[in-house]
Amino acid sequence: MYSSMETIGFSTYFNDVVNYFYEDERLVVQFGQKLGFDVRQDMFLGVVFLYPSTEQGTFEEKERLKKHLEQMCALPSINKKVGSNQMFYVDNGVATFLVGHTKDELAEILPEFKKEAVERLETLGGNKKVRVGIGLPEKGIAGIKRTYTYAMKAAKAGEIFKKERVILDYMGMEIYSSINAMVTNYGKQITDIVFSQLGKMEINVLAKYYKCKEDIDMTAKVLDIPSDLVREYLANVKKSTGLDVHDTEDSFKLHLLMIAKKVLDTNKKIDKMKAIKQYEYILLDIDDTLLDFQANEKESFVRVLNEYGYKNPLSYLPVYKKVNDKLWEDYEQGKIEKTEVLNTRFSKTMREFGIEIDGSEWEAKYRSYLNEGAQMIEDAEEVCQWLKGKYRLFIISNGVAVTQKRRLKASGLEKYFEQVFISEEVGAQKPSEEFFSYVEKHIPGFDKRKALIVGDSYNSDIKGGLRYGIDTCWFIREDGKEQEQQEKSTYRISRLKQLKDILD
Q1: How far is CA 115 from CA 111, 121, 122, 131, 167, in A?
Q2: What are the chain's domains?
Q3: Which residue from 11, 185, 395, 481 lies 20 to 30 Å from 435 (Cα-Cα)?
Q4: Is it true that the peptide bond before 431 is cis, omega within 30 degrees of 0?
Q5: In what helix (H) or strand (E) does residue 50 lie, and over which residues does it extend?
Q6: Over the stretch 298-355, which tens digit does the pLDDT of each residue have?
């Protein structure tokens, strides 16, 4: 999960705990203490804010929701134990945890929290209703997972059974959650038998009849038809099925069947929505996505300058980065050839210090060191292992082919990928249409509607993918600097293993 020296935030911590992204429970306890609470003693209450499951919330919508609610969670009167930045992305929305020493302490927090949540959601704007699911107070690491699960169940059950509600406590929604689970597993066969004997209008009248609390006149008003016609349709139900709405036992059965139908119809919509975004092909960048090029670059640069006898080599690095970035930008825009990038970046860097050197000679040494660099981004191998078998995996990378392939092999990640596409061999570089067209033509059966690009560069990976019609996931490391963007990436993540949340 983490190293003992790592500093993490609230959102990362809880996201890892609820998704079981950890191996050492002892470290979970220690990092909790660093954040100001004791998972062995303190009480936790999971809260989720979810957009409708049938209307996939965009990353931008979830980001807006997160920022809109963060201030609320930071209010001392709401939650004294936890500071700001305590929201994390989940499913189709965001989640947080209230923390207290006791159940009574959480009970004191909750009314004000609910009030504040409703008020803030009313000012959020947008046309998608956000529902708030609230779990039960729980203690310990396992308790964190349980209260989060309860909160998710409450929100999702409310989406089907209590559409008018914003705040959904698990205690009040438990029976609906259980009905939801039961119907999902066993309800289709029963509903199919009964409703196959009824017409569309009879089913519609039944639904409105129970919605109107079995009031025939109210049902007629909602449907805008005469009350006698409602009675006629209900009589047809009895004639076709033998079930009489005026008989207590039969009415209970029919009401339960209508609930089951509602659950199944909603689940069908959700499944249809998910099917649209079912990915088969994952295209991953190498540098600063799977392999830590920044660390490799720094180490190789230092080795080159040390070899030539320069003291304090890191003092030259910022100038090199500036020169190098500009040269690669010119190359991507077609202004210069790649050989000019490679053979002049060192000479132009040292010229800034009034020193003339052989740029191509330095480049050769630098290249040899880069070829040895196989430092991986955190969780890279874990994520590749998880993806393998579920998806078809491919590498898409700009750069020098021999360098990229050697590093990929040295890291041990090579075995996870069917093919490796590198700009030098393709004959075009990201973000050009030619590059992505080449990839599409050389992957058997490729369907770009079912593909996802994962990369750190907005210009190369994200812009290029979106313009070619491929969904993208922008990997912005927590220590990274966001690039200016015109088109919106389909997803954004700050840790590589958050891919699991998107794809699961």
Answers
A1: 6, 10, 11, 13, 9
A2: 10-171 (3.30.70), 197-272 (1.10.10.2840), 281-289+376-503 (3.40.50.1000), 293-372 (1.10.150.240)
A3: 481
A4: yes
A5: strand 43-50
A6: 889 999 999 999 989 999 999 999 999 899 888 878 888 888 999 999 999 999 999 9
